[in-house]
Amino acid sequence: MGPAMSAPTSPKTFHVKSFGCQMNVYDGERMAELLAAQGMTAVDSNGSADLVVLNTCHIRERATEKVYSDIGRIAKNWDGPVGTAPMIAVAGCVAQAEGDEIMARAPSVQVVVGPQSYHHLPEMVARAAAGGRATETDMPAEAKFAALPKRRKSAPSAFLTVQEGCDKFCTYCVVPYTRGAEISRPFSDLVEEAKLLVAGGAREITLLGQNVNAWASQDDKGREIGLEALIRALAAEPDLQRIRYTTSHPNDMTEGLIEAHGEIDKLMPFLHLPVQAGSDRVLKAMNRSHSAESYLRVLERVRAVRPDIALSGDFIVGFPGETDAEFEETLQLVDAVGYAQAFSFKYSARPGTPAATMDDHVAPEIMDQRLQRLQAALQRDSLAFNLASVGKRCSVLVERKGKLPGQWLGKSPWLQSVHFTADLAIGDLVDVELIEAGPNSLSGHLL
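User: That's the sequence. What structure does it adopt?
Assistant: C-alpha cells below.
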C-alpha cells in the first residue's frame, strides 16, 4: 500500500460508499446522518471527500480483496492538496471480521469500525484527525440505535432496521460472526422512527433484519408481540402507504404473519423467503432447519391468503457434496414455486464457517453449469410473472427519473420496476395500467 500521507486534520466533507445488503444501505444512511450532525457535508465523489467511509459486505468471495482495491483507488483519485490524502474509514462486516489485519496491511486506513459500533464513528474520526488510528468492533446493538440521531429526511421508499444478527448458524454464512446474535429493537423505538421517516417524506417503509420475521418485542401494554403486530401498528399511520419486510427465514413464518398478508392492505404482496436448495440432504448440511416440503407448505399457506403474492428466494448452487441429482431437486422446487424474482449464487467458502472445512467441494466448472441452468429457469419464471401482469391496474410509487425525457421509474406492489411517461414528481403514488413486460421491468400507462 505504500507509506501513508497525512490526512486532512479535520474532515469537512465525507462520502459513504455502501456495499451488499439493504441493511448496509440503512447503516450507510445512518453513518451519513451522524457525520452531518457534526457539521460535515456529504459529497458524491470520493475524490473530493476529506473522509471516505467504505461500508463493506463480507458475504461474497474475495470481499476483503475488493476492499483493498477500493482503498488504493481512493488514494489515486484524491484531488486534494499535494502531500495529503483523504481519511479512510472501513466499516461494516469486513471491518468486523478482519479489522486488525486491515490496520496492519493498509496504513492509509485511519478508522476501522464494525456494524454494531458505528455510532462511535464521529469520535473515532476526531481521534484519527488528531493523529491517531481508531478501531472498534464491539457488538452492543441496542446501544448503537439509542445513540443515533433522529431521522429528519427520507426518500419516498425508506429502510428501517428492526432486527439484527442471526442465531441460525447456517454452515456457509458469516453473519452470526460479523453481526452477532439476534437482537430485536424495541417496539416503541421503531414506531417512533417510522413516524419520523413518514414525516420526512417516506411513503413506503421496508422493515429490515437478517431474520426480520424473528423480530419480537413488547407492545405499549407489555404484551409479547411478533412482526405482524409491528406491521399492524405501522399500517395505522395514515400517511404511510406501503409496508414491506426482508429477509425472512422459513422457520419464522408464523401463522399470525401469514394472516397479516391477507388482512393488511398496506402490506405489499411480495415475500422474499430464501430456501437455498431443493435437496433435503443439502439443506441439512447447510443447517437450514427446514425441508423442501415444509418450505413449499409455507408458500401454499401464504398464497391461500394472498393469491396474487409475488415470491422471491435465494439459492446457492455447488454447496460441498451437492450431486447432480440433488441439483435437479433444486430445479424441481423452482418449477413448483414459479418465482417472480430470485437471487442465485455459486457457493463460495467463507473463512471460519463450518462449510469451508467440508470435503467434496464441487468443481468450479460444474458450479458454473449449474448456475447457468438455474438462472435460466429463474429468468423464465420472472418473465412469465411479468407477462401475466400485463393488463393489470395498480399503484406505482415514483422513485426516480428515467433515462428518457418525461420518463419516471417506480415500483409496483409486486416490487416490479415500472417506467412510464407523465408530469409527476418523486414520491407521487399514482395509478397505472401495465401495458408491456420484459424480463426486468414493465412499461405502464398513467390512468
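Residues 1-5 have pLDDT under 50 and may be disordered.
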